[in-house]
Amino acid sequence: MLKTLRLALFTLPTLPFVMGAQGDGCAAGSASPAPDVRGTWNIAYDDTIGIEVKIGGAVYNAELGAAGGSFTINHEGKPYTFDLDCGRPDVVCPSEAWPDRVVIEQRDSMKQHQMVVNLPQQACMGALMKPAPGTCGIGTSNPNCDLVCDGGVTVKTTEHFGVIGEAGETFRLYLGGGIVTNGINCAMLGYSVADAQLDNVGDKGVDWEATGMSAGLVTIGYSGACLFAGQVDGTNQAVLVGAELKFTTGFTGEKQ
Asked: For the whole prediction, is pTM greater than 0.70?
């Protein structure tokens, strides 16, 4: 059974950084036409959450219902139980990444590929530090080299940056708060995004409009220590701090 949420889109006059949607380069700064994504959307989510756990070179997979919950993996003969508790104030589950109702505008007619959506966003309550050398960049859990939060995190609603791809057929929305975990707290990993294809009608640059979203995927990552259901201590801390938990759920969208 699908969980239906309503989504509307909203953008900022300025953007925190310039990246392309799904590898589309510098589409955020593009002056080419983009489809009109403004308006209210109905979003239908999958009823399952896919899980990928990485510990060292080992990868484990599991699945949860849309409401989250606990799951156990066995690594090198030891069980590790994790709990994706969607009720925790410092945790945002995949389907919670889209509130029941948000608003978007594409305000800059010269940069139509820019979009920002009002969504839950994490903020650091401690010090912000530069990531250690070699711990960020392409191929890591912190691809944008966001600052590391050395403290707890809180969640509030704010505007998130998104990009419509240069071809106008996809979008990518960045779900993190521009901070990443120190391995202990629950700041999202830097690859947390929402991606989808746009189903468009009309002529490019004239009456081009997105009326649907297909093949959507929300991806959210946390450190193992954040969601570990037991006590983090000297016997397991090294394993848990280095563990990555990736949660994904699919969605489709229909414009009202």
From this structure: yes
Residue with tokens 């009720």: 87
Amino acid in position 129: M
Phi, psi of 7 (to 5 degrees): -125, 135
Summarize the confidence of residues 65-91 as an average pLDDT.
93
Determine how β-strand 179-180 pairs with β-strand 147-150: parallel
Cα separation values, 68 from 50, 64, 131, 213, Å? 10, 6, 30, 24
Element housing 238 (H / E): helix 237-242
Instruction: Summarize pLDDT for 147-192 with one digit per residue, the tens.
Output: 998 888 888 888 888 899 999 999 998 887 678 888 888 888 888 8
| Tokens encoding 176 | 């993190």
Torsion angle in degrees (nearest 10) through CA of 227, 233, 237, 243: -20
Two structure tokens written together for 145: 């080299």
- The vertex-242 CA angle with 55 and 131, nearest 5°, equals 140
Question: Above 90 in pLDDT, residue 203?
Answer: yes
